[in-house]
């Protein structure tokens, strides 16, 4: 890499690979896969091949195509299928992150509960629904209040939170597992399961489908495709390196939990903390348990503080372009999207109140996680199919980063990612056999009704849009098909008909 020839600052392959790792890796989901024993490695590798790598590379081409234009997934999908479907895509990306907050904060509440030195008492507190509900709401609204004050200093918290709350604990967990096995500790993992799982047991694949969400978010890293020298060579290299490191952390971290906790005793919300507790007891270092609980809690809180205002920025920009009513476009004196954050907080509060009808904290955690997976996978299926469509619809548009010379590689990766997401989507409706989720009627009702309501809402909003919704200060550039339609003749005809074609967002499809 010849940095001297670069016209500006460029990221190295190693730096971009590390950014990919820190953007994706989270430890809170490891217990969900530890129940599978050695076969968990199969699921991690399978999801990385059919989802993680295709997502990263396909998103990189799309990001490079529209590097100078706002919109993200809204523009990518909107250019292929029209503004209505593009609005659905970015809506799902935003609402998915909104539903994600209660699940990650549930893990944060468990971390707080485990700050004590009595594991039995900590487990009872962590299972208390009222305690968890209060902590989830208190921390979320605190993060929202801080976000409304401005986010100039949140970057540092995110950096240190990711290091202290994720990277260091991940390395420590893997190291503890190695030391435990090497020193003769009893392996609690059922090694008889083998690497290849029994794929005939569909109910056992539900938790495995959540692995796809472990890798979600890689499409966000596509914005950096032009920040490396020779992107066609170095970006895929950084993606492969980052993906390998990510898979290694997930596999070894999951194994480390399986070594110390029998599969029948694994809890989705508590087992990460219990695993650390058990390792520290084995090494006569019980004093370290509260320290790791505080570190994990700090990582969760820093992550939530960073993300509370993040995803809502995208839909805020799209809303100002005329796709949301003026109420949702209101910002405070700091330029923060005030009303969207308040609406987001209201949704989080309602979801947190599901504690009342769910039989346990763990079942609440699992059903919200599954709903999150379903919504995000719909967005990914739209993204993968849109990338293929754009190869033909906008075949002459410059692609600074292109997958292959022809269309074969795009078809391969696009179809692989789409089919992988579709498979995970179908499996996510099946109640997991390993976890008590209460009534199957509640399980299916929450997932089916949740998907219908969330997917239907943006279509209703789009149908109700008005020309007056567009903010005069919006910087969103029209889609290519909109620009092509705005010929002098078409504009004159529209004016003669008493309409304002330039003001009202078009659909792009008859």
Mean pLDDT rating? 82
Number of helices: 20
Order of helices and strands: HHHHHHHHHHHHHHHHHHHH
Task: Please give the number of β-strands.
Answer: 0
The low-confidence parts are 1-7, 498-510
Rough outline: globular
Describe the main β-sheet briefly: none
The portion of residues assigned to helices is: 55-70%
**Secondary-structure content class:** mainly alpha
Using the CA coordinates, give the radius of gyration.
Answer: 23 Å
* Beta-strand fraction estimate: under 5%
Q: Span from first to last CA? A: 48 Å
What does the model show?
The protein is an all-alpha fold. The chain has 20 helices and no strands. Helix 5 packs across helix 7. The radius of gyration is 23 Å and the shape is globular. The N terminus and C terminus are likely disordered.
């Amino acid at each position: 890499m010849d940095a001297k020839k670069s016209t500006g600052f460029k990221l190295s392959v190693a730096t971009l690979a590390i950014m990919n790792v820190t953007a994706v890796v989270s430890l809170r989901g490891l217990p969900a896969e530890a129940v599978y024993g050695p076969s968990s490695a199969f699921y991690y590798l399978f999801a990385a091949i059919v989802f993680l790598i295709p997502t990263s590379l396909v998103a990189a081409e799309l990001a490079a195509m529209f590097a100078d234009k706002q919109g993200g997934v809204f523009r990518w999908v909107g250019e292929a299928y029209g503004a209505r479907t593009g609005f659905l895509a970015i809506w799902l990306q935003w609402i998915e992150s909104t539903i994600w907050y209660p699940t990650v904060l549930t893990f944060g509440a468990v971390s707080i509960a485990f700050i004590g030195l009595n594991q039995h008492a900590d487990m009872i507190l962590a299972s208390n629904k009222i305690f968890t509900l209060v902590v989830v709401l208190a921390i979320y609204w605190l993060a929202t209040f801080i976000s409304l004050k401005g986010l100039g200093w949140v970057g540092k918290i995110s950096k240190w939170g990711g290091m202290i709350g994720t990277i260091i604990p991940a390395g420590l967990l893997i190291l503890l597992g190695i030391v435990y096995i090497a020193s003769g500790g009893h392996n609690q993992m059922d090694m008889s399961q083998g690497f290849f799982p029994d794929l005939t047991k569909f109910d056992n694949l539900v938790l495995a489908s959540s692995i796809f969400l472990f890798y979600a978010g890689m499409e966000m890293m596509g914005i950096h495709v032009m920040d490396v020298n020779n992107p066609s060579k170095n970006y895929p290299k950084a993606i492969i390196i980052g993906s390998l490191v990510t898979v290694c952390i997930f596999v070894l971290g999951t194994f480390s939990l399986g070594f110390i906790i029998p599969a029948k005793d694994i809890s989705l919300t508590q087992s990460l903390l219990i695993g650390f507790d058990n390792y520290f007891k084995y090494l006569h270092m019980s004093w370290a348990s509260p320290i790791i609980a505080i570190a994990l809690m700090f990582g969760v809180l820093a992550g939530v503080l960073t993300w509370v205002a993040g995803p809502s920025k995208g839909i805020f920009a799209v809303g100002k372009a005329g796709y949301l009513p003026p109420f949702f476009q209101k910002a405070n004196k700091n330029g923060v999207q005030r009303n969207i954050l308040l609406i987001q907080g209201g949704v989080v509060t309602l979801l947190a109140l599901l504690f009342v009808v769910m039989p346990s904290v763990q079942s609440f955690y699992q059903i919200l996680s599954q709903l999150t997976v379903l919504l995000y996978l719909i967005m990914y299926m739209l993204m993968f199919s849109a990338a293929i469509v754009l190869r033909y619809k906008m075949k002459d548009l410059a692609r600074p980063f292109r997958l292959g010379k022809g269309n074969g590689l795009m078809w391969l990766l696009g179809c692989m990612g789409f089919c992988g997401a579709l498979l995970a989507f179908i499996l996510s409706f099946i109640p997991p056999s390993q976890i008590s989720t209460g009534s199957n009627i509640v399980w299916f009702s929450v997932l089916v009704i949740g998907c219908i309501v969330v997917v239907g809402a943006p279509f209703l909003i789009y149908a109700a849009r008005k020309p007056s919704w567009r903010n005069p200060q919006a910087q969103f550039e029209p889609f290519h098909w909109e620009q092509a339609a705005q010929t002098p003749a078409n504009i004159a005809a529209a004016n003669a008909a008493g309409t304002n074609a330039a003001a009202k967002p078009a659909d792009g499809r008859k």
